[in-house]
């Protein structure tokens, strides 16, 4: 079962902040965040591991609540380049997934000047 | 490090034909994944290789789909007797076991079945 992302879409002005949420019904080992622009490959942003939190970019950070199987991606002082579709990919706990990621349906972020 | 490379970028075929896609992973990566992505959806797992061994295949994957990774380097994904429902973007990703399994994606092959 895929994780659920919210909101489905966000529209911002440059400089505004946004939060994207990812919620799973399964126990998780890790959460991966990607950004994809139209017609391009998903680009890795950051990974959050069970028992820790890792910041990947300067103005983009994330949190991981293991007990609630939830992760949130925080984008601060948004730039035009932040526009795209954001996906969370989850890796199940238990050690048998071989690193397979299950992706949410995506959140479309649009930043206007 | 030239990134993950996929060929062709676009493939148009008629229903019933066979198609084959190629993925060249980042050279030092021993893990390779195939995903399928349809419009408005996130990537969906198809299959996984560790070196040359295919260790997992999605239960949703039809028997018409087969993948190989000879010698643990590049990989091919073949779809036999294509159907219109196979139309999608096919993405390949690679990672290094032990490096937190951060997966790097190629730009994908867009398949259109007429």
Report on this structure.
- The complex is a heterodimer of chains A (113) and B (114).
- Chain A is an all-beta fold and 113 residues long.
- Chain A is built from no helices and ten strands.
- Chain A has strands at 4-6, 9-13, 18-23, 28-36, 43-49, 60-65, 70-75, 84-92, 102-103, 107-112.
- In chain A, the strands form two sheets. In chain A, strands 2, 4, 5, 8, 9 and 10 form a six-stranded mixed β-sheet that branches.
- Chain A starts with a strand and ends with a strand.
- The model of chain A has no long low-confidence stretch (mean pLDDT 90).
- Chain B is an all-beta fold.
- Chain B contains no helices and eleven strands.
- Chain B has strands at 5-7, 10-13, 19-24, 31-37, 44-50, 53-57, 65-68, 75-79, 88-95, 104-105, 109-113.
- In chain B, the strands form two sheets. In chain B, strands 2, 4, 5, 6, 9, 10 and 11 form a seven-stranded mixed β-sheet that branches. In chain B, strands 1-3-8-7 form a four-stranded antiparallel β-sheet, with no helix packed on it.
- In chain B, β5 (44-50) and β6 (53-57) form a beta hairpin.
- The interface between A and B is medium-sized, with 23 and 26 residues.
Main attributes?
heterodimer, A: 113 residues, mainly beta, 6-stranded mixed sheet, 4-stranded antiparallel sheet, 0% helix, globular, B: 114 residues
Poorly predicted parts of chain A: none
Summed over residues and divided by their number, the pLDDT of chain B gives a mean of 93
Shape of chain B: globular
Kindly provide the radius of gyration of chain B, computed on alpha-carbon positions and rounded to a whole number of angstroms: 13 Å
How can the largest sheet of chain A be summarized?
6 strands, mixed
Give the largest interface: A-B, 23 and 26 residues
Helix-strand string of chain A: EEEEEEEEEE
Query: Main sheet of chain B?
Result: 7 strands, mixed
Percent in helix of chain A: under 10%
Give the distance, in angstroms, between the N- and C-terminal Cα atoms of chain B.
Answer: 36 Å
Question: What portion of residues of chain B is helical?
Answer: under 10%
Number of helices of chain B: 0
**Which strand-content bin applies to the residues of chain A?**
over 45%
**Would you tell me the structural class of the helices and strands of chain B?**
mainly beta
């Amino acid at each position: 079962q895929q994780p659920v992302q919210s909101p489905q879409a966000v529209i911002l002005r440059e400089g505004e902040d946004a939060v994207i949420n990812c919620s799973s019904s399964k126990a998780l080992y890790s959460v991966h965040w990607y950004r994809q622009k139209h017609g391009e490959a998903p680009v890795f942003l950051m990974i959050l591991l069970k028992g820790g939190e890792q910041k990947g970019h300067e103005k983009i950070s994330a949190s991981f609540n293991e007990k609630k199987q939830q992760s949130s991606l925080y984008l601060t002082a948004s730039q035009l380049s932040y526009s795209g579709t954001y996906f969370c990919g989850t890796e199940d706990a238990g050690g048998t997934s071989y690193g397979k990621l299950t992706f949410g349906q995506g959140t479309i972020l649009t930043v206007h000047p | 490090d030239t990134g993950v490379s996929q060929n062709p970028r676009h493939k148009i075929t008629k229903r019933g034909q066979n198609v084959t896609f190629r993925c060249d992973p980042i050279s030092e990566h021993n893990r390779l994944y195939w995903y399928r992505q349809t419009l408005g959806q996130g990537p969906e797992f198809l299959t996984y290789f560790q070196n040359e061994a295919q260790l997992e295949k999605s239960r949703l994957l039809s028997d018409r789909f087969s993948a190989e990774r000879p010698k643990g380097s590049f990989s091919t994904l073949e779809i036999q007797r294509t159907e219109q429902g196979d139309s999608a973007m096919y993405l390949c990703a690679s990672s290094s076991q032990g490096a937190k399994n951060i997966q790097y994606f190629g730009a994908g092959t867009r398949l259109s079945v007429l």
